[in-house]
């Protein structure tokens, strides 16, 4: 059986780096992606694995990343869409989209779709790092994905994490018959730098109120590693949202099939796939 290839985005630190270390120890061919050249190279050198640098606030970076992955890797058995972040004031990317939604949802949506044929060929697993913020703050208005009418950092992040779950469910629905197995998960309250650039009260909660309850990146990566190394359909249910290796209840909108389909179609238009 060929060695598995596992691609992890957001792997220059935090749970992405922790998952990369765990999967490398298991013998997988790990490929890491990060935004910081120095930090990404440091983790790659530590593990002696290939790496790519991409800024998900630039969709052209995602297109170049996908092309490089397709050129250099004959199979992709696991794609862990782990990159993301919590922003502060509303900001539009060079592509013209609200930055939180682009970095957390549109960029991984584009990357997954550009790699879809390779993933289907490998009967691949797609793992999307979501968050409990989907339930706390998420309320998607499909006609205002860029939050031009009303913007709050928490709403933007909650919407993006809700989008991760909707994407997971719709990806499974559309491509499960071709061999794709998808899951989303909440890693828990993990001590990482994901909210370092934000001034929202969610960052305050993470850094202070819940500070003593934070788990290590290694513990936070446990469900990601579990999803990546166990058998879909036997050990876990494709299309579902997990925390601590168990199916969790997301916010009500996460189970709206019409919203999931509309978000997919809108994401295709926004990323130039349609």
> What's the CATH topology name?
Rossmann fold
| CATH homology superfamily name | NAD(P)-binding Rossmann-like Domain
Helical proportion, percent range: 40-55%
How far apart, in Å, are the first and last alpha carbons? Answer: 36 Å
Give the total of domains.
Answer: 1
List the helices and strands and how they pair.
Elements: E1 5-8, H1 14-25, E2 29-34, H2 37-47, E3 51-53, H3 59-72, E4 78-81, H4 99-114, H5 116-121, E5 125-129, H6 133-136, H7 153-175, E6 181-185, H8 201-209, H9 217-220, H10 222-229, E7 241-243, E8 246-247, H11 257-271
Parallel strand pairs: 1-2, 1-4, 2-3, 4-5, 5-6, 6-7
Antiparallel strand pairs: 7-8
Keywords: Oxidoreductase
Protein name: Short-chain dehydrogenase
Organism: Subtercola boreus
What does this structure look like?
This protein has 274 residues and is an alpha/beta fold. The protein has a single domain, classed as NAD(P)-binding Rossmann-like Domain (Rossmann fold). It has eleven helices and eight strands. The protein has helices at 14-25, 37-47, 59-72, 99-114, 116-121, 133-136, 153-175, 201-209, 217-220, 222-229, 257-271; strands at residues 5-8, 29-34, 51-53, 78-81, 125-129, 181-185, 241-243, 246-247. An eight-stranded mixed sheet has the order 3-2-1-4-5-6-7-8, sandwiched between helices. Helix 4 runs parallel beside helix 7 (153-175), helix 4 crosses helix 11 and helix 7 packs across helix 11. The mean pLDDT is 93.
